[in-house]
Amino acid sequence: MTAHPRPSDVEPAPETKRVFIKTFGCQMNVYDSERMSEALAAEGYVETADVAEADLAILNTCHIREKAAEKVYSDLGRLRDLKSLRAKSGKETFITVAGCVAQAEGDEIVRRAPAVDLVLGPQNYHRLPEFLSRLRGGEAALVETAFPDEDKFKALPARSPAKSASAFLTVQEGCDKFCTFCVVPYTRGMEFSRPVAALVEEARALVARGVREVTLLGQNVNGYHGEGAEGHATTLAGLIRQLASVDGLQRIRYTTSHPRDMTDDLIAAHAEEEKLMPYLHLPFQSGSDRVLAAMNRKHTADDYLRLIERVRAVRPDIAMSTDIIVGFPGETDADFEATVDLVKTVGFAYAYSFKYSARPGTPASSMDGQVSEAVKRERLERLQAVLEDGHRQFNVATVGKTMPVLFEKAGRQDGQLVGRSPYLQLVQADAGPEFIGEIVDVEVRAAGANSLSGVIRGSM
What we know:
pyruvate-formate lyase- activating enzyme, alpha/beta, 14 helices, Rossmann fold, disordered N terminus, 6-stranded parallel beta sheet
């Protein structure tokens, strides 16, 4: 006869804890947020999109743009009120500020926003469960912004089931270039590259969970120099070739690159490696050699144009993308016109353009010749009109072509799916959910401002 436990003998089921994560800024922050969520899942946390029900709220911040910190403090004011309201119902709420604003502001965040429980730099998020345990034990607000010796990636748990057929994979962090406008060396530290074996293992885990495409991430991704076979350093091209051997991984991309690290073997990989998509994000920032020198970019406009020629010589159909800053200190009308001329010469498929914004502590923030907001705004509007025309022309040129599309999710319309072309264009087509995660040939029928629409070959 089987004895059944009395109700008093049964351990109560642990209450589900909920975490809300708001991600600011770059793709690397998206990756970091996913990894924090995975670390917390092992502690019983489930993600929620409703901050009002969150036992833990995390702001994963970016410090690249102007007023980034002020936007965080604005959100912290709302979280403070929510924390107080939940406390009246006997509910505990922890507030965490992670990412680059956390690294840059440190103790100042707790001083200005006492409701914050944890300030966590980007090199410490693998210790998030430990810090939460200490807070529950009664410790006061913790500020952890040191650069630890240990490899945070080794301490993170296995990857969770994929949310999409495409995933980010951080391969490199930090930057040694010290562009005068950039805070990355101060918030992310010097360049660090993960070992090849660890990245191949993570890629295999992602594929096993449904991923078909990975985008390799790094603040200076083509400066990758991770440990490979027999302890020798491996270039990004070597890493790409290793990842291309992973069964089930069908597409590889990488971002963000620096012109100084666009090596011969990486250019050759664009011609030789079928899984490497014909898309290259390569910021030039300014078309003026004088401004480039003030930015400490260590390349000229001509260097950049010759580099584009070399890439297109091996992969003529490659889609080029870039970053551009207008209104850098000392930029004249002639400097700006040189930027516009370079844009027209290259013909970018995509571009991200910004007004210069001073980041505290960077050399450019104290340079003479700061450009007025009105001039920066007028220049940005002119530049974006040129860039938008180039983007439109690139999309229109694909109408009538058939391209392999990796479908990632359902579209806004019933019976519609959305995916990406090899050139990173959004493509919509009528298809059933069984096509999600599959690469399917689609004939492009129309080009909109931000996406293409087409028909699956065989269903016409």
